[in-house]
Amino acid sequence: MERNSYTQGLQIAFMGDPTEENQEFPFDDSSSAGFSNPNFSQGLQSHHDVRVFGFQQSSLDDRFSQLNLNDIENPTRIVGSDFGPAPIGLFPENSFNGRHVLRSLPSQTMVVDRSPNYSPSTFIEHNVFDFDTNTQRRTPPFERPYNLCDPMRSVNGLGSTMMRPSMHDHHRQPFYSPPPRQLPRENSSYYYIPPLMELKAGDICTVAKDRDRCLALQKKLDNEVLTRGEIDMIFMEVKDHLHELMVHRFANYLIQKLFKAINNEQRTQLLLLLIRSHQRFFQVCTNLYGSRTIQKFIEIVNIEEQKCILLSALKPIAIVLAKDSNGHHIFEPCLKKFSSEETMHLMDGIIQHCVDIAINKSGCCALQQCLTHANDEVSEHFLVRIVANALFLSEDKYGNYVVQFVLQMGLPWVTSMIIGQLQGSFVSLCYSKYGSNVVEKCMKESEEQLSARVIIEILNDPDYLKVFGHDYGNFVIQSALWASKGHANLGIHNAIHCLIRKHYSFLQGSPFGRRILSAASKCRRS
């Protein structure tokens, strides 16, 4: 049984005189047998700095009592004991060999003094080091206190238990726990930025990329404590690194603040530098931090020249941006800030490819933003194309959200045209995970006459019972119950209840049918 659990990182020397090999130790008790160790000289060959202490006048038991070996579980491991010498190969490297525990340390050999005058105190706290084979260093226990707190924690992946403090040591001090790191206060010197005029070329970019100093500089811009000369100096520093700073996780906030602080002439110059490289401009627009910075620019620009610069740069990449997870957010501030006439050219490409954009995860969101903020003329162009492809979009994973959004707009002519496009396919849509949502929306958002057309088509189908027991179709029937209840003519509502009573046994035996029974019960009580 190996004892790596209490020997790692230790080198303890005891019992012996290095000048005499294979000798017997004298004992005061004449009846005691001599204690010899044939491996004594072998154990000392590679460790010439082992110290020897005068234990000759004490018994073997006294020597062991002074050693504080911390829960030795198997005394037969001691070489040369009364149980006989250990066979060759029994003790691997880093184990206890009867005289000392050997461990090759990176820089020095640690020897623990166990002379009779030694006062045993906190052996573990002061002398045990956790040797990290991966980093080749010794770690004091106070840096990793959990190693000694948990006796069952494995050491270096060997599966052995950690050495625990001696049960006879009653003077142990609590493990040292370093105080938690405290972040400096905002008014501390940690946030100190020297006067800007004293900074060297390139220092502003370094400050912008540091979280705390960048925050301090932003506050100076917000509080308007910087002179115009200092603002101009910051502008001159960052304009040559604009694309790099706009996509940086900290520096992008400084660029946003700076764009607000500079004058219109400098803003125009900054925008021209931004769009000078179309590839780098596109990379900024599709970056998380760059997209936020572009949105801030759009909110701040206030002259026609700056608006034209931005819109002309966005138009060629509008379709790609609409499908990008970060780029599609740029359209909303554009539609809010600029007039319909100004955004008409930007919307032209999106209108032409609106169906392709609608079936994209980010594109369906961008299309809904366009429908929300566009004027009537632009919206009509979008709606005509969406209605013409209503059936295809209703069955799509993302396109169905666009159709539902159009139905929620509450335009009667649009709702009527969508229901006309879907007529004859309502039953098949009930079986679709995405199409069933569109059918429910048609019943809820349309007028009574149009809603009745949808319900009648489903109930008149020869396989209507499959819809009742389907995992998606049962939601359509539940919506039909609630939608028909608000009709002035309750004939359809009563017809649904008649069908439910007729097929009560079937519905009771189906998990989805029981949902319809529960909805019908709630509908009657309300």
Automatic annotation (TrEMBL):
It is found in: Cytoplasm. Its main location: cytoplasm. Residues 177-524 form the PUM-HD domain. One of its GO terms (biological process) is regulation of translation. The keyword RNA-binding applies. Pumilio repeats lie at residues 237-272, 274-312, 385-420, 421-457. SUPFAM superfamilies: ARM repeat (SSF48371). Keywords: Cytoplasm, Repeat, RNA-binding, Translation regulation. GO terms for cellular component: cytoplasm. GO terms for molecular function: mRNA binding. CDD domains: Pumilio. The keyword Transferase does not apply. It comes from the Eukaryota. This is PUM-HD domain-containing protein.
